[in-house]
Write a structure and sequence with these properties.
Strand order of the largest sheet: 5-4-6-3-10-9
Bound molecules: (2R)-3-sulfolactic acid
Structural class: alpha/beta
Number of strands: 10
Strand content: 15-25%
Mean pLDDT: 97
Amino acid sequence: MKLFVYHTPELTPTDEVPECAIAVDVLRATTTMATVLAVGGEAVQVFSDLDQLLQKSESWPVEKRLRAGERGGAKVTGFDMGNSPLDCTPERVQGKRLFISTTNGTRALQRVQNAKVVLAAALINRATVVEYLWQQQPETVWIVGSGWEGSFSLEDTVCAGAIAYSIMQKGNLSQDELAGNDEVISAIALYSQWQDNLLELFHLASHGKRLLRLDCLEDLKYCSQTDILDVLPMQREPGVLVNTVIHS
Ligand code: 3SL
């Protein structure tokens, strides 16, 4: 297995696709998606465009859908919810499809949607993603961070490092054996330094600060937890993710 990390959708190569692509938006889109599927959501369907989301979800029964819209960290007027994973309680979500559009995270997923396998990862489901990779041994894996409007983000890179670090430990691999590009080495270094202080790192991150200005400290705390949910969001058809059970 060779692992490649790309910090933003824009930095991801356009002339090839990997065997497995993993979209990461720790703050907060992929954390929200993993949470929705873990508590019994039927599926998550992603859109980069808000109008397309509204149009497509119109054909879905009202009692079986939730519309989530976020721009600049805030809930979009007229939508059922914004992008807080803490809003995704079992009572609210069970049996429903989440139609979601966010500033960056849904774009990252759409950017890699042609890969053979597409997953969504965050810190909260890191172990399940790593277990899947270890069982399946895809030849090439891309981890694509969402960043913020084309820029690097600490939280997505540290999650990429957490995944890489855990694969190395599982397989007793060296960085050299696993890494396909330099970004992998730097992501592992970031995770190694901050693994016991992820919430503190999020306080330093520019998007963490943006969310704190919006009063989202509890979201930051939730998103900074590692390996708390056994859920594997996997693309079933372009743009639609479902929880996939893996056997260990
Ligand atoms: O950029 C995104 O896709 C969002 O996750 C941003 S926010 O955390 O909802 O503000």
